[in-house]
Each structure stands twice: as C-alpha cells, then as structure tokens.
Write a structure and sequence with these properties.
The chain is α+β, with helices and mostly antiparallel strands. The protein has six helices and eight strands. It has a single domain, classed as Chemotaxis protein chec, CATH 3.40.1550.10.
C-alpha cells in the first residue's frame, strides 16, 4: 500500500535531498577524482512490507541477482526521529565504484574482494554522512549515526517481508560518472512519527505554510 505525500511535501523533500546529495556527491567526487552528476531526486513513500516489490519497479541493473547495500542508523538526541539510511547499487556497480576508488581501473573485479568491504564502507560513510549532515542542518537537529554496514545479497534477503506498519521513504537518485553510468538509490526507513516530524521540519525550513 502506498502512502501519499502532498505535492508541496514531495517537492520540499525532493529539494532537501537534492541539496543533501549534491553536497555528498561533491565530496565523493574528490575521492574518485571524477565529476559525479546526480539526477533530480524522485521521492516516494511506501509501506515497509511492500519495499521489495517496489524495488522491482526501480529498474536497478542486476536487481534479480545481487545488490550491494551500505546502511547506517541515525537518530536525534531525543529519539524523536529515527531512520536507517541505505545506499543501494547493483553488485556489479558497487564493485565498479570500488575499483575506481582503489585507482585500479583495469583490475579484475574478482581480485578486489578482500578490499571491497572497507572501500564500500568508506563510500557509504562519505555519501550517507555527507547527506545526513546537510539534512541535520535542514532539520535543525543533530543526527547521531552508527558505523556503516555493508551487505551483498538479493533484494528479498536485504529487505525481508515484514508485518510491521513502518514506512519507507524512497529517494531515487541517479549517480553518473563520466566514464560509466551507475544508478544508485537512497532509502530512508522510518516509522510514521519520524516521517511526520521530518515533513514538518522540511516544511518549516522552506517557509511553507502549515495550512497550505
């Protein structure tokens, strides 16, 4: 079941993530020594239990096989907002990025498996934390994060079906390197109170009338 956002809320969230991911992409660009271009964020809220089927509609290359996901949990000091931030690529795209990070453009992917976990974790740390730092400014609250965790498995194992009433804020973002096109997705998993608070803070930041 989809949970609808109003047009103003969707536009405001999209602009917030556009700002946040733009800053993160600039930092990541320095690491891979190549310009990173990002597409306009596509914002959608879906029931948590429907996440896997929704991912099937996102056309991630390699989705039917294995995905690479880097995730971190964040919360405000007072625990009023809790979220898990996910950066998701196809496994091949994730390994391609690692190869660029290691400066080994010609290295066969099967030769960097011992280094990929650390490199992927560093990638997630740069992109996710860069994004969350900007969002913290927009939200007006400090966001405390844990260490990044890396997983590589089919979508159904990354996001097993759940009975809980949680929701998923799906922010689809395309990442483009000059040498190759890589599509990544940013997901924010949160409960309804956290999502409501996030929408309220984003509306306030952009000066939107609460009654509009």
């Amino acid at each position: 079941m989809s949970i609808e956002l109003g047009e103003l809320e969707r536009d405001a969230l999209g602009e917030a993530f556009n700002m946040a991911l733009g800053e993160a992409a600039a930092s990541f660009s320095e690491l891979v020594q190549e310009e990173i271009r990002i597409t306009v964020p596509h914002v959608q809220v879906v029931a948590r239990a429907d996440l896997v089927s929704q991912l099937g509609d996102l056309s991630i290359p390699g989705l039917s096989e294995r995905l690479t996901a880097i995730t971190q949990a964040f919360h405000t000091r007072d625990q009023s907002l809790n979220t898990e931030a996910w950066l998701v690529f196809s496994e091949t795209s994730g390994l391609d990025i690692v190869r660029r990070m290691l400066g080994e453009a010609e290295m066969p992917l099967d030769q960097i498996t011992e280094l990929e976990q650390d490199a992927l974790g560093e990638m997630g740390n740069i992109i996710i934390n860069g994004c969350m730092n900007t969002l913290a400014t927009i939200l007006g609250s400090e966001l405390v994060g844990g260490l990044p965790e890396v997983a590589q498995s089919p979508a159904a194992q990354l996001f097993p079906q759940q009975e809980e009433d949680g929701v998923v804020l799906v922010v689809r973002i395309g990442l483009s390197l000059q040498s190759q096109n890589i599509t990544g997705y940013v997901l924010f998993l949160m409960d309804l109170p956290s999502l409501d608070l996030m929408v309220q803070r984003v509306r306030a930041y952009f000066g939107l009338d609460a009654g509009a």
